[in-house]
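> forwarded from #structure-qc
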């Protein structure tokens, strides 16, 4: 249940932040254009909280946190008094109405750049993309243990997560991919991943098994990276950052030694004598390992410590250097997102790749557990996705409004109200169908 509540919480945080920023774009540009805003709502349904400012705008937080809206004064929706006609949205020049419609996606784009910038300033921990013994398509391509991935189809690769992202996207589209590597011996080589050989029955959840790449394990220092509550190590006074030098007099060189020695020594006697290095001093500590019985009846001993992450490719830059990096990252993710959208539209990628709120919630929770930088990365990607989706020329979305305004610019008069209403119904049905499919895919991922 902890995962459920965590996912629900981080989904609310994610949508709250991104929807508020999106709707604030519409709101602030509408005010700059002299349009009276009647309500700014985060969420749909009955308001849980509301206040009214001196300009008469109601600010509300509603019960259903899956969106939001900005309601503006408009003669097409309600009667407008003569003294407020100049503040009505429908009375504004088409250029201003276009600016108001485009402001939401534009603010999502601004949020994306800002989130990537902060991610780089904070520092996003990752791994150098050195592979372990491969199988599947990677083995067929000639990949070998120790290969370091440098470029994928000409794009420079700086981390393991970026390598997996690029390979995953190309695998979805069944696009053969050139991977440039530095071998374990220091030479240069190019491996061709023939994703075109993947059959249609290979689903999204099977792709990475088919690719066959694994990260080469990193040897971890014998340093405590985390402590568990209620277990002996924390109770005995051990701290994060302590280096374990010896256990019962036996030397410790790596964290793997700790994982080997604790069960061996505790199996003889649960009382363990530890020599640790803390700062410039060495300390002796004694604790009793806890015996745990597994579901299969086997027993093991725990003291409640974990290693540090072992990350060796932290992406971190100074505030000024992070600015161009943030724009580069935004452009790279935009290209990837548009590429995936194109593959979906032309049938090159299956509709099972669509995700809904359940999957977003799970990814939100997972990224939040990985730290601030990873959560910022997640927020930036979702914000950019919202910007792209809202710019699609579908009636009811911002892109649909922009399409109507473009037609108005060309023909010199607004699109008829009847056409707009018909378009709203069509757009609504399209969105309901897409959301239904996304929910269906989410549920399939949960049960498989």
């Amino acid at each position: 249940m902890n995962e459920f509540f965590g996912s629900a919480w981080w989904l609310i945080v994610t949508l709250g932040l991104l929807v508020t920023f999106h709707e604030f774009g519409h709101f602030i540009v509408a005010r700059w254009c002299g349009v009276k805003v009647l309500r700014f709502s985060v969420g749909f349904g009955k308001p849980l909280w509301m206040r009214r400012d001196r300009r008469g705008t109601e600010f509300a937080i509603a019960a259903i946190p899956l969106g939001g809206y900005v309601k503006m004064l408009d003669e097409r929706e309600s009667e407008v008094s003569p003294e407020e006609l100049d503040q009505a949205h429908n009375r504004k020049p088409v250029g201003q109405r276009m600016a108001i419609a485009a402001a939401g996606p534009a603010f999502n784009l601004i949020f994306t750049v800002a989130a990537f910038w902060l991610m780089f300033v904070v520092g996003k921990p990752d791994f150098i993309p050195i592979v372990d013994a491969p199988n599947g398509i990677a083995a067929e391509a000639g990949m070998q243990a120790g290969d370091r991935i440098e470029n994928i189809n000409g794009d420079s690769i700086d981390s393991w997560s970026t390598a997996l992202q690029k390979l995953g996207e190309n695998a979805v589209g069944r696009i053969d991919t050139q991977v440039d590597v530095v071998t374990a011996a220091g030479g240069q080589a190019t491996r061709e991943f023939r994703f075109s050989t993947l059959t249609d029955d290979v689903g999204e959840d099977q792709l990475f098994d088919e690719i066959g790449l694994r990260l080469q394990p990193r040897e971890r220092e014998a340093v405590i990276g985390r402590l568990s509550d209620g277990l002996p190590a924390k109770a005995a006074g051990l701290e994060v950052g302590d280096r374990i030098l010896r256990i019962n007099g036996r030397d410790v060189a790596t964290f793997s030694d700790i994982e080997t020695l604790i069960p061996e020594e505790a199996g003889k006697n649960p009382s363990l004598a530890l020599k640790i290095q803390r700062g410039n001093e060495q300390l002796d500590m004694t604790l009793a390992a806890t015996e745990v019985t597994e579901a299969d009846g086997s027993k093991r001993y725990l003291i409640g410590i974990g290693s540090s992450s072992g990350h060796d490719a932290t992406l971190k830059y100074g505030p000024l250097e992070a600015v161009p990096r943030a724009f580069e990252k935004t452009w790279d993710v935009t290209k990837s997102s548009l590429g995936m959208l194109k593959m979906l539209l032309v049938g090159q990628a299956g509709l099972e790749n669509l995700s809904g709120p359940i999957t977003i919630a799970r990814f939100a929770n997972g990224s939040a557990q990985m730290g601030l930088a990873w959560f910022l990365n997640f927020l930036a990607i979702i914000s950019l996705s919202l910007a792209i989706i809202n710019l699609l020329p579908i009636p009811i979305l911002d892109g649909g409004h922009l399409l109507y305004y473009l037609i108005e610019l060309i023909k010199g008069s607004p699109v008829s109200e009847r056409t707009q209403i018909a378009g709203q119904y069509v757009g609504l049905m399209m969105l309901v169908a897409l959301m239904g499919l996304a929910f269906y895919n989410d549920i399939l991922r949960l049960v498989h």
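QC bot note: Residues 203 and 352 are 8 Å apart (CA to CA). The chain is about 45% helix and 20% strand.
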